[in-house]
Amino acid sequence: MGREGRFVRDKIVYSQLSVYLTFDSLCFNTVNQCLFFLITVAYVYCEWLFGYWKRKNVPHKKSTSLIYGSIGKLFKAEVSQGYFFKDIYDSFHGEPFVGFYEFQRPSLLLRDPEIVKKVLAENFNSFHKNGLYVNEKEDNFFNRNPFVLTGTRWKEARSKLTQTLTVNKLKFLPESISKIYPSMKTFLDETEDNIEAYEFGTNITSGMAASWSWGIEDSGF
């Protein structure tokens, strides 16, 4: 092969190499642009998602995590539920309500007693969903608790309780509790062995129920 042939061959190889480099550079730039676009979209979405209470002009606890929202410490069991909500309550003194984020869901903590009254009494039909989840198959006892029921099941339980927990009957509740106290104190003073907490609580509950509901003077001890 002569000099001209080698020159043509080298030129073809150089052209192919240039094409490959240009294609690789184009792919690299395209990938970078796609990543930049996705990151920008994710950032804008997160700003919009965790800016809900800011748009509503509601004082709120800012989100500290994209996954957990404001409840990171609570979800990781670093603090108790009571301490977590008390911290939010104390941090916004004078505010009627405070917003926070349960994961990506905006939630509201009420501080004003009048608003609490409206939610729990006057407009409770619109606020009966409490956010608690109970597996009905695994916990057949707790899922009947009216404090965790929602929808139709809550309305049925509420109608039964309102017939029983009338104002006149509730007036006698403190008296029923006070009648059990002397027997309970005597039982504790005379018992030297360890006390079974479950049995102790059952005795108190049965004594209160018998005295308050049917007028039976039975302390349960």
Automatic annotation (TrEMBL):
The keyword GTP-binding does not apply. The chain crosses the membrane at residues 35-53. Keywords: Endoplasmic reticulum, Heme, Iron, Membrane, Metal-binding, Microsome, Monooxygenase, Oxidoreductase, Transmembrane, Transmembrane helix. Gene3D superfamilies: Cytochrome P450 (1.10.630.10). Its main location: endoplasmic reticulum. It comes from the Eukaryota. Pfam families: p450 (PF00067). Its cofactor is heme. The keyword Acetylation does not apply. One of its GO terms (cellular component) is endoplasmic reticulum membrane. It is found in: Endoplasmic reticulum membrane; Microsome membrane. GO terms for molecular function: heme binding; iron ion binding; monooxygenase activity; oxidoreductase activity, acting on paired donors, with incorporation or reduction of molecular oxygen. InterPro entries: Cyt_P450 (IPR001128), Cyt_P450_sf (IPR036396), Insect_CytP450_Detox (IPR050476). It is a peripheral membrane protein. Belongs to the cytochrome P450 family. This is Cytochrome P450 CYP427A1. It comes from Laodelphax striatellus.
